[in-house]
């Protein structure tokens, strides 16, 4: 693969001002993309953009505000050009608590950011992508979407819904030239992971942290997204790629992945 496989592309990364989003944004820029990072804190965004690349720009918007996203996209297109790659990275860990005890508004706020934010960001770029007949949309998923989330049900539910949204979108986009795919970064040392460690340790005095084989540096998911942006995963629309499996393993087993409906959210029923 070329050192600049994304040359000529414009990438928009939501939640790109810090954490995984900032690392992803920097990797996309190094791969040749013109990068716009979007978030709510303009000063943080500007500082991050300045450290990424001279061409990187900061655009301020809340992903749950459709009008703000429309305005932000217009700014990106005016300054950089049409968006070729959207990375739906913005998300929150939510509020810990059992369903019987948690405030319903707090629980729903997690859905608003982690799911509605993805929907609105996607809807902002889709008309242009459809008109051009090309584009790639990457959603930041989580293994939490495939497992029960006692104590963190808001987050778990939001990521399960995201997986189904991704698959539904991919089905609608079949034969349009636009890819929708979900990735998972594994466990990365961020404020979000600290939140989950606090929840699990309070529930289990023997909690010793996440398994080491699930812990990855943010660069691992950034490299995966660069490869997706370069077109290496175009046959995997609607699926969920975890850095633990890695893209090479998935591509080496592509026929099995497709034939057996792997890497999708599925309910296992009796025959």
Compile the SSE list and pairings.
Elements: E1 10-14, H1 19-30, E2 34-39, H2 42-52, E3 57-60, H3 66-79, E4 85-88, H4 104-132, E5 135-140, H5 153-172, E6 178-184, H6 191-203, H7 218-229, E7 240-242, H8 247-252, H9 254-259
Parallel strand pairs: 1-2, 1-4, 2-3, 4-5, 5-6, 6-7
Helix pairs in contact: 1-2, 1-7, 3-4, 4-5
Highlighted features:
271 residues; alpha/beta; seven-stranded parallel beta sheet; 9 helices; 13% strand; globular
User: Which word captures the global form?
Assistant: globular
- Enumerate the spans where pLDDT stays under 50 for 5 or more consecutive residues: none
> What fraction, in percent, of the residue positions are helical?
40-55%
Could you say which structural class the secondary elements and strand pairing correspond to? alpha/beta
Strand line-up in the sheet with most strands: 3-2-1-4-5-6-7
Order of helices and strands: EHEHEHEHEHEHHEHH
Average predicted confidence as pLDDT: 91
Count of runs of 4 or more consecutive helical residues: 9
Total count of strands: 7
Main sheet summary: 7 strands, parallel
Question: What fraction strand?
Answer: 5-15%
Give Rg in angstroms: 18 Å
Euclidean distance between termini CA atoms: 44 Å
């Amino acid at each position: 693969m070329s050192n600049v496989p994304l040359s000529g592309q414009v990438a928009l990364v939501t939640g790109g001002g810090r954490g995984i989003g900032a690392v992803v944004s920097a990797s996309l820029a190094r791969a040749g993309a013109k990068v716009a990072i979007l978030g709510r804190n303009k000063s943080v965004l500007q500082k991050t953009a300045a450290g990424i690349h001279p061409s990187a720009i900061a655009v301020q918007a809340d992903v749950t505000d459709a009008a703000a996203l429309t305005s932000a996209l217009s700014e990106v297109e005016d300054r950089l050009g049409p968006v070729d790659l959207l990375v739906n990275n913005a998300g929150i860990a939510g509020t810990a608590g059992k369903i019987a005890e948690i405030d319903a508004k707090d629980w729903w706020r997690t859905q608003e950011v982690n799911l509605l934010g993805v929907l609105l960001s996607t809807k902002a770029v889709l008309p242009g992508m459809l008109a051009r007949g090309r584009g790639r949309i990457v959603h930041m998923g989580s293994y939490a979407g495939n497992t029960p989330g006692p104590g963190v049900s808001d987050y778990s539910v939001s990521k399960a819904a995201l997986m189904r949204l991704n698959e539904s979108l991919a089905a609608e986009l079949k034969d349009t030239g636009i890819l929708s795919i979900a990735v998972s970064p594994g466990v990365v040392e961020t404020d979000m992971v600290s939140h989950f460690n606090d929840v699990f340790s309070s529930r289990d005095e023997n909690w010793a942290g996440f398994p080491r084989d699930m812990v990855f540096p943010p660069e691992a998911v950034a490299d995966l997204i660069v490869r997706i942006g370069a077109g290496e995963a175009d046959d995997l629309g609607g699926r969920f790629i975890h850095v633990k499996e890695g893209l090479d393993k998935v591509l080496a087993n592509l026929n099995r992945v497709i034939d057996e409906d792997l890497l999708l959210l599925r309910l296992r029923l009796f025959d």
